[in-house]
């Protein structure tokens, strides 16, 4: 028995995986706002929706006289990265939550990064930009589930002590309801040329064991490392979180 | 009839002088390499824009110098000429310095708010720390004003420009409030029974704001060949007609002189431009448009006389608010003419349509002015 995210959420994921640029399908690369810019265009802060990223890319291409239709998908991805276009992990999940839960509910999620009342008020106008992994997995917005075996699509897997987050896209259970596998989706800066929006899978090999003891399947051609899994091992607060 | 005849004569003389001086000015600008740099235009990327690299800037000097020359020699009136010409020359000088610094100047190091904040804590000397604490609020204001600038780090910075424009506005307000007489304090309103509205000293900040806004609005609109020049012609054309009805010969002749010089300038600025206006022209003429409208007591219709300029200005303000407040882009690019460029409209089409729209707005303004 397979459980998936709602169709509209899956559509958003598909759009991120297949950005339509220059008539080619391009996987959205990873981009994070390391400069800590608070203002500015949402799409330039690593928080844009697929259509916003496409529109901005086309605009920048026009500015820079870049003919996207003449470029290979790999080069278009390079162009996106150089232009500061892409999506970070929390921005990716927040954009999915926007279609799953609606803008009103996402706006009501607590922004935990600021202590100033003014900043918190201003953040209400820009929820997507201000919801970090720490905010999404904060006790005000979500709680860690006791049994990872109870996870379901829409739950978040916090890794690297809150520096990265994955979204469970699909769960597979047998007829007696036991969890067989988890498919997750995330936007990551790991995996070199294969970074950006990508899937990974967790095969349940020890149903009674911990989440870390399962078979995590994700790696890239070059390094052959499962960096997502390494992130799970890095920190104590990691685990599966569900929005309240 | 005499006032109309005299104005037309000055218009023709001014245009003739403009046509004679334009090729000389162009040669001088080329000789001293006062030309558009390719790397600035590359930012916009369009082929048409790259082609503009090498075009002389500061062509607006033609209008400024011709207007000042003719007015000083043939149309000088102590009461009515000093401030319009003085403020125009001051703003033009500000724009000219900016133009030159943008071409020949080095990139200026502007300390960020974070750096000033850090220096106020860690500077080795007590006086140094104190100094950075004092200038911290200014650094913050500068940081916000930077949002309005297009070329941070080079030329005159936005906060410096605004301060100097504030002085120009202050001079205009002083002139109107203390020198021109009590009837000028009554702000004219269309269809008003008692001749206008007395808002007292509030007129001073309003005048300052109007002068600053108009100068910058014209500056923003000066992005396509012929756009600012043609639009200014219709704006000053409206003022000329109004001055005829008001019977003020000094203002009528001054407006006509500007139009004559602008006709010569625009002739050479039509695509492909032989030279561009530059800040020297746009700031100077923007200030003059505001000052003349204020002096002719028609502040209310200024948004109609400079309709396109204000539309361009508001497109930038709205874009900045949308961008920094809501993280979204309302126009593909601001000012508005760039939006249409990116939509694929040819430059000529945008310019012609903007001229027509401004012409219609000016007609409305003149009509209102008669009521």
Describe this structure in words.
The complex is a heterodimer of chains A (244) and B (371). Chain A has 244 residues and is of the alpha+beta class. Chain A has a domain of 86 residues. Chain A has nine helices and ten strands. In chain A, helix 1 packs antiparallel against helix 4. The relative contact order of chain A is 0.15. Chain B contains 16 helices and two strands. Chain B is globular, with a radius of gyration of 21 Å. Chain B has two domains: 323 residues, no CATH class; 44 residues, no CATH class. Chain B has a two-stranded antiparallel sheet. About 2% of the residues of chain B have low confidence. Classes of the chains: A alpha+beta (244), B mainly alpha (371). Chains A and B meet through helix 2 of A and helix 14 of B. Chain B: It is a multi-pass membrane protein.
Task: Write a brief structural summary.
The complex is a heterodimer of chains A (244) and B (371). Chain A is α+β, with helices and mostly antiparallel strands. Helices cover 32% and strands 21% of the residues of chain A.
Shape of chain A: globular
- The unreliable regions of chain A are none
Question: What percent of residues of chain B are in strands?
Answer: under 5%
* Average pLDDT over all residues of chain A: 90
> In angstroms, what separates the terminal alpha carbons of chain A?
25 Å
Secondary-structure-based class of chain A equals: alpha+beta
**In percent, how much strand structure appears in the residues of chain A?**
15-25%
- Counting DSSP H or I runs of 4 or more residues, the number of helices of chain A is 9
The major pleated sheet of chain B works out as: 2 strands, antiparallel
Low-confidence stretches of chain B: 40-48
Give the neighbour order of strands across the main sheet of chain B: 1-2
Secondary-structure element series of chain A: EHEEHHHHHHHEEEEEEHE
Number of helices of chain B: 16
Give the strand tally of chain B.
2
Element order of chain B: H for helix, E for strand: HHHHHHHHEEHHHHHHHH
Give the helix proportion of chain A (percent range): 25-40%
Give the strand tally of chain A.
10
Assembly status: heterodimer
Number of domains of chain B: 2
- Summarize model confidence as the mean pLDDT of chain B: 88
Q: Which structural class fits the helix and strand makeup of chain B?
A: mainly alpha
Pathway (chain B): Cell wall biogenesis; peptidoglycan biosynthesis
Transmembrane segments (chain B): 6-25, 57-76, 82-101, 162-180, 200-220, 227-245, 251-270, 301-322, 350-370
Main location (chain B): membrane
Membrane topology (chain B): Multi-pass membrane protein
